[in-house]
C-alpha cells in the first residue's frame, strides 16, 4: 500500500502519540514514590522496582523487535502492544497489592520494549532519505520531551487526584491512539517467516543481569556483594555467548555484525553519549535545586520545564538543519553545547543561582536536540532498509544500558552533594565524545556490506 504525504503524516503522528504516552510512563513514577510508599506501606527500595523492573523487561525484549517485525505485520503488532499496555495499566489501577501492581508494570514494560525500536524502524522505512533528518527530529522531540515532562505531569496530577490518575491518563490517551491506529496505521514491511531462536532469547537474559548489577552498584551491602558479583559474572558469560551465537548464525535474532559498519558504530556511540547527558541532567538537577538551592520538590520539577520546552522546540529544527547542511555539523553543534553547558555548571555552580542553573540545563538539553537523533539518523543511513530494524533495536538497547550506567555514575560520583564532581565527569565524557564526531562521515547514504 502506497502512502500519500497526508496519510504518512497521520501514520507517524499516531505512532508518536502512542510512543510519547508510553515514554511518559517510563519516567513519571519517580514523583509518586512517596505516595506509593505510604499507600502500600513499603520502603523506597521496594517501590523503586516499579521503575527498575519496567526498565529490565523493556531492555530484554528490545532485541526481539527485529524478529517480530519480520514475522508479523506491523499494524496487528502495534495494536497488540497497545492492548497489552492498556491491560497492564488496568491491572495496576485495580491492583489489590504491590505484587499484582508489578505484574501490570512488567506488561507495560514489555510493550514499550518492543515498540521503541520498531516504531523508529517503521518511520525510517516510510520516510525518504533526504527527509529523515526533520522527521527523526520530531522523534527526538517525543523521546526527549517525554523523559522531561513525565515527572511534571505526574506531579501535577498528584496535586489534585489519587495516584491512580497517573495511569488513568495513560489509559485515556492510549484508547484514543488505538482508535486512530485502526484508521491510520498500515503494515509497510514485507513478512518473511523465520524460526524463533529460543536459545538466543535465553542468552539475552544477560542484559537483565547486567542492568540489575549496574542499578545495585550504588547500594550494595556486605551481604549482597557476592550475590551481585555472581549475577554480573553469569550475565557477562550469557552475553558473550549471545554475541558469539549472533555472529555465527546464518539468520541471527539480532544482526550484531552491522556494528562493524563504521558510520553505524559511531552513530550508536554518539547517540548513547548524548542520552547519558540528557538523563543525567533530568535526574541530577532536581537534586541540585533541592539540596543546594533549597527549592521544594514541586519547584525543582517546574525548574526543568524551560529546558524541556527548548529541547522540544529545537528537535524538529535541528532535524531540518541536518537535512540542509548535513548531519555532522549539527552533531558537532550538539556536543559543543554539551561541553559549554557542563563547563558552565562547573564554573558557576558556586554562585548558587537558580537562573544560571536553569540556563545551563537549557544549554545541555539543547545539545541533546542537536546530537541524539541526528546521530541516530546518520548511523541508520549507513544501513540498507532490511537492516534498519536490527539497527534500531541495537541503538535502543545500548542506549538503555548506557542511560542506566549514566545514572549509576552520577549517583556514585555525587556521594555527599558533590555536584561539581558530577559536572566535571560529564564534561570529560562529552569532550571524549566530540573526538568521535570528527571521525563520523557526513553522508546521506552509505552502502552497507552486511
UniProtKB/TrEMBL annotation:
<dbReference type="GO" id="GO:0005886">
    <property type="term" value="C:plasma membrane"/>
</dbReference>
<dbReference type="InterPro" id="IPR005829">
    <property type="entry name" value="Sugar_transporter_CS"/>
</dbReference>
<keyword id="KW-0813">Transport</keyword>
<dbReference type="InterPro" id="IPR036259">
    <property type="entry name" value="MFS_trans_sf"/>
</dbReference>
<dbReference type="InterPro" id="IPR020846">
    <property type="entry name" value="MFS_dom"/>
</dbReference>
<keyword id="KW-1133">Transmembrane helix</keyword>
<keyword id="KW-0812">Transmembrane</keyword>
<keyword id="KW-0472">Membrane</keyword>
<protein>
    <submittedName>
        <fullName>MFS transporter</fullName>
    </submittedName>
</protein>
<dbReference type="GO" id="GO:0022857">
    <property type="term" value="F:transmembrane transporter activity"/>
</dbReference>
<dbReference type="InterPro" id="IPR011701">
    <property type="entry name" value="MFS"/>
</dbReference>
<dbReference type="Pfam" id="PF07690">
    <property type="entry name" value="MFS_1"/>
</dbReference>
Amino acid at each position: 500500500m502506497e502512502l500519500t504525504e497526508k496519510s504518512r503524516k497521520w501514520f507517524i503522528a499516531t505512532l508518536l502519540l502512542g510512543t510519547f504516552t508510553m515514554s511518559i510512563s517510563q519516567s513519571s513514577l519517580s514523583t509518586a514514590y512517596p505516595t506509593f510508599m505510604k499507600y502500600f506501606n513499603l520502603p523506597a527500595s521496594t517501590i523503586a522496582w516499579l521503575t527498575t523492573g519496567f526498565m529490565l523487561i523493556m531492555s530484554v525484549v528490545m532485541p526481539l523487535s527485529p524478529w517480530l517485525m519480520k514475522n508479523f505485520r506491523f499494524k496487528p503488532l502495534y495494536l497488540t502492544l497497545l492492548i497489552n499496555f492498556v491491560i497492564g495499566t488496568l491491572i495496576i489501577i485495580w491492583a489489590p497489592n504491590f505484587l499484582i501492581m508489578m505484574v501490570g508494570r512488567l506488561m507495560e514494560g514489555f510493550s514499550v520494549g518492543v515498540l521503541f525500536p520498531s516504531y523508529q524502524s517503521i518511520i525510517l522505512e516510510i520516510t525518504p532519505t533526504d527527509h529523515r533528518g526533520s522527521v527523526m527530529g520530531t522523534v527526538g522531540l517525543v523521546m526527549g520531551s517525554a523523559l522531561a515532562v513525565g515527572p511534571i505531569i505526574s506531579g501535577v496530577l498528584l496535586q489534585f487526584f489519587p495516584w491512580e490518575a497517573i495511569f488513568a491518563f495513560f489509559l485515556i490517551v492510549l484508547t484514543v491512539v488505538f482508535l486512530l491506529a485502526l484508521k491510520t496505521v498500515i503494515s509497510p514491511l514485507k513478512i518473511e517467516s523465520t524460526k524463533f531462536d529460543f536459545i538466543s532469547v535465553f542468552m539475552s537474559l544477560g542484559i537483565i543481569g547486567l542492568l540489575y548489577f549496574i542499578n545495585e552498584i550504588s547500594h550494595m551491602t556486605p551481604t549482597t556483594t557476592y550475590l551481585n558479583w555472581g549475577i554480573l559474572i553469569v550475565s557477562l558469560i550469557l552475553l558473550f555467548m549471545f554475541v558469539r551465537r549472533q555472529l555465527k548464525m546464518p539468520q541471527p535474532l539480532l544482526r550484531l555484525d552491522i556494528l562493524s559498519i563504521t558510520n553505524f558504530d559511531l552513530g550508536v556511540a554518539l547517540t548513547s553519549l548524548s542520552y547519558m547527558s540528557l538523563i543525567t541532567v533530568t535526574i541530577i538537577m532536581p537534586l541540585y535545586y533541592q539540596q543546594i538551592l533549597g527549592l521544594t520538590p514541586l519547584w525543582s520539577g517546574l525548574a526543568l520545564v524551560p529546558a524541556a520546552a527548548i529541547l522540544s522546540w529545537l528537535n524538529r529544527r535541528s532535524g531540518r538543519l541536518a537535512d540542509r547542511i548535513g548531519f555532522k555539523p549539527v552533531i558537532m553543534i550538539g556536543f559543543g553545547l554539551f561541553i559549554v553547558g557542563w563547563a558552565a555548571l562547573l564554573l558557576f555552580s558556586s554562585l548558587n543561582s537558580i537562573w544560571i542553573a536553569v540556563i545551563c540545563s537549557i544549554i545541555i538539553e539543547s545539545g541533546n536536540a542537536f546530537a541524539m537523533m541526528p546521530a541516530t539518523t546518520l548511523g541508520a543511513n549507513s544501513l540498507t532498509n532490511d537492516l534498519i530494524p536490527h539497527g534500531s533495536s541495537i541503538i535502543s538497547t545500548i542506549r538503555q544500558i548506557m542511560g542506566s550506567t549514566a545514572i549509576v555514575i552520577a549517583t556514585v560520583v555525587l556521594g555527599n552533594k558533590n555536584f561539581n564532581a558530577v559536572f566535571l565527569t560529564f564534561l570529560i565524557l562529552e569532550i571524549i565524545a566530540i573526538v568521535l564526531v570528527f571521525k563520523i562521515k557526513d553522508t546521506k547514504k552509505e552502502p552497507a556490506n552486511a
